[in-house]
Structures are given as structure tokens and as C-alpha cells.
Amino acid sequence: MSSLLRSFGCLASSGLFLFSAVSAFPSAASARVLVKAQGRCKMVSGGYVAFNGHCSFKHKRAGGTDAYVVKLDDGSDYIFRGPNPDALSVQTYRGILNVKHNAKNGHDVFRWDDGEKRRLSVKLDHVQNADAEFDDDSDKATVAAIAGGAAAVALIGALISGQNSSNAPEPATIGAPVRELQDLVGARGGQAEQNLISKGYQYRGGTKALDSSFSYWQQPRTGNCVGIQTSDGRYQQIVYTEKSYCN
Prior knowledge:
By secondary structure, the protein is of the alpha+beta class. Helices cover 17% and strands 45% of the residues. The chain contains 3 helices and 14 strands.
């Protein structure tokens, strides 16, 4: 027993333990899963590689709070949360600490300092449909799953129709290019995201279809929803889309 207590004391003093009872959101909140994926993680503590292997990753949102839940194959769980992806914190036995978060092209990095510098890197390998449900009576996808696919198809249609709507006024109809963002077409996704955030755009979710990914951003002042198609790591088209995709 004494050896177990000594081991617990060493881990707690290192600040590595997270409270296992802490959840991503209060129990009353209904969280929306934006990203669910399997990937590979590397945890570096004080310059030492504490973990390097498989992990799971979720990005959730509820009640104005973003939460990232990372579960390592060694049983360690990390929950980062805050009012937006650029203002996160983590709960440790040394208290709540600020976290620096960088995300680009399926690669998230979380950094914090609890007396030792911590760096958790996550590389997403297999992104799942976060909205898919399964009906075990009929072996068919439910309306929610179909709606997720329909949303991607609708956005593709909007992107295609928007190719011939470059002269549409703003606020524009669905499929029209967002004029103030056309200089980002061709830019790398990670770099362009920082530009969007600096302009006041708020990330509202995303999906995948065929060989492209689609992200949804709420435009400041107007509240319009903007759809961005990314292929090969670069923005291909930026158009207005249904406001429901940003809810």
C-alpha cells in the first residue's frame, strides 16, 4: 500500500494526472460532436517522450464551449476546453492551466506548462462521420446519417453553382463566392484558418465527401454561413451556403 501511495504522489506532483471525474461539459449540456477520429499521438513532457502511439480524438461543442477529448492507448485522457479553439485550458492536479492550441490539416498540437513543458501532438488518420447513427432494427442509416450526407452533397452543389455567380451581390445567395475571402482560394488550410479567425469568422463544423473536406464558418456582422472546400490541403472554393450548416 505504501508503495502505491508513493507512486501516486510522484504522478500527482508531476502534474500529469487529470481528474477522471471531469467531463468535457456539464451533464445538462447537449454536446454536438464536430470531429471524431482515430489517429496517432505523441506526448512530450519536459523533453521526454512519455507516449508515442495510437489514440482517439473528439472535438465537441455545447453551450458556447469547445472541448477536445484525446484518449491515449495507455489509458490517459486529456480534456481541453474553452470558449473557442484558441482559448483552451486543461484541468490538472495543479489547477486549471492555459493551453496553446494549433491546428492545421488534420494535425492538432496542445501545449501547456505545469512546471514542466507539456506538448501533446495529434495526427488524425481516420476521420469518422460524427453525425452518423445506426438503426439496429432495419440495418439502415437514420435520418440524421442521411442528412449528414445530404449536407455534403448540397454544399458540393452550392460550390458548383457558385462558379458562375461571381457577380452576385453580398449578402449573396447560396453558392455565390464570398468576395472578401477570394484571396484565400489556393491558400493552405492551416494558414488560411488564422486569417479567417482574425477577420472574426467563427468555425461551426465540417464534413468530408469524396476527396474533399468542407468546413462551415459564420460570417461576422451578417451571420451568413460560409462553406469552404479543401482539397490537397488547399482551399479550392469559398461560397455562401445554408445557414443551417452553421447552427
